[in-house]
Amino acid sequence: MLALAHITKILHLFRKADSKPCQNDTVRTARTHAILPLIAVAAPTMLAMSISKPANAGTSLSAGEVRGTFGAWQMRCGRPPGASKEKCALVQSVKAQDRQNVSLMVIFMHSYDGKSRILRVFAPLGVLLPPGLGLKIDNADVGHAPFMKCGPVGCMAEVMVKDDLFKKMQTGKNAVFIIFQTPEAGIGIPISLGGFAQGLAKLN
Predict the structure, then answer these.
(1) For position 194, what pLDDT does the model report?
(2) Are 90 and 119 in contact (CB under 8 A)?
(3) CA dist., res. 181 & res. 133, Å (int)
(4) What are the tens digits of pLDDT across the range 19-28?
(5) pTM above the 0.90 mark?
(6) For the chain, what is the HEC assignment?
(7) Which of 61-91 are b and which e, b meaning 16 or more Cβ less than 10 Å from the residue's Cβ?
(8) If DSSP states are collapsed to H, E and C, what string results for 129-150?
């Protein structure tokens, strides 16, 4: 509500400024300076409003009810916004071993029609977007995935899991997701694949 009031005030000031002729650049600059602080207050909330819906939809299952634990994985269930029925996902949240402020959230789920397997990974804000997200399973390179969007909870990469990757996730022991905060060096964040195959048997 506070941001809405600021936005309304900004629009009113712009309309008022447009209705009054400016006789010189000094007057025009003064008007602009009067409006800028209001924009600074309202802009973060306006940005959050514009991106919060996709981010919430992408992470709603991670905050769902825990229905089971399989190794390092939790099966969480809930009804995402706009969904007609409940959905479950395997979720694992981890932190980098040498950087406790760098964490990942990994979500594996089936599509609603049951025809696709989806892997979503949320990396912290500030990650470099062009390199994308790297993945190794048992020290073997699997590939990279681009970041699709960023929101208040982080930046999301999404992969449609094909049979080859699916088998590696089922039989592997460990995976390492690689993100970049600087172009020079990547940060490897390990996750355990223990319990993943068992969790799949319970996943809808």
Answers:
(1) 95
(2) no
(3) 11
(4) 445 445 444 4
(5) no
(6) CHHHHHHHHHHHHHHHHHHCCCCCHHHHHHHHHHHHHHHHHHHHHHHHHHHHHHHHHHHHHHHCEEEEEECCEEEEEECCCCCCCCEEEEEEEEECCCCCCCEEEEEEEECCCCCCEEEEEEECCCCCCCCCEEEEECCEEEEEECEEEEECCEEEEEEECCHHHHHHHHHCCEEEEEEECCCCCEEEEEEECCCHHHHHCCCC
(7) bbebeeebebebbbbbbbebeeeeeebbbbb
(8) CCCCEEEEECCEEEEEECEEEE
What pLDDT score does 81 carry?
Answer: 80
Structure confidence at residue 30 (pLDDT): 42
Q: Which segments in the chain show pLDDT lower than 50?
A: 1-20, 22-23, 25-58
Residue recorded with tokens 């982080």 = 154
